[in-house]
Write a structure and sequence with these properties.
single chain; alpha+beta; 8 strands
């Protein structure tokens, strides 16, 4: 019978798969340094943000870049691993994989990041409406995210949401968002910072 390729034989004398607890004092030092770094270096609304409905601060790309430099991390690669481009359906979907390593090349964080043209930020645009709906309908549209007020030239204009007719022109932006999500996720994994930050795909 053919041997199952998923099985791995481990040499009992090998220390490749050895796991050991890092000394408690080192863990305490890391925790204190991470807390101090977050308080003293990272800036709210620049490196991270507080978003409604999310318990933890959301790490942004600038903050992830600062963490990368502070911990001497390296980006091994950010590659596109999945791509869908359908012009007829006005649809795009990209997934990128980011690998973060230590300075010596040890892989510490691997994360996929996805973005597609069905996300609200890409799928819809808001255009001025010729007629403002009655108050009851207006309030409902605001709650559902289908309409909003915007001040233009000292005048409030009612905008209504519609499908973006030129969403394919956002190809580069969608790719960049997918790359960013992969990068931030890999950084969080590399330094074990899920207690301090989270990643929100809507915000990035």
């Amino acid at each position: 019978m053919e041997e199952n390729k998923c099985n791995t034989r481990i040499n009992e004398n090998s220390d490749i798969f050895e796991t050991r607890l890092i000394p408690i004092e080192e863990i305490k030092k890391w925790y204190a340094e991470m807390t101090e770094f977050g308080n003293d270096i990272l800036k709210i609304n620049v490196d991270y943000g507080i978003l409604s409905g999310i318990d933890k601060p959301v790490l942004f790309k600038p903050g992830a870049e600062k963490i990368k430099n502070a911990f001497s991390l390296q980006v091994e690669k950010i590659d596109c691993v999945s791509e869908i481009f359908d012009a007829e359906k006005n649809y795009m979907d990209y997934t990128y994989k980011c690998i973060i390593t230590s300075k010596s090349g040890l892989r510490l964080g691997i994360c996929d990041g996805n973005a597609n043209s069905r996300e609200e930020k890409f799928r819809y645009i808001f255009i001025p409406s010729e007629k403002v709906p009655e108050r009851k309908v207006l309030d409902k549209m605001k709650i559902e995210g289908k309409g909003k007020w915007k001040k233009c030239s000292d005048k409030w204009v009612w905008l209504e949401r519609t499908e973006n007719p030129d969403v394919l022109a956002l190809k580069n932006s969608i790719q960049k968002i997918a790359q960013k999500r992969a990068f931030v996720g890999a950084i969080l994994m590399a330094i074990g910072a899920s207690e301090f930050f989270t990643q929100d795909v809507i915000a990035n």
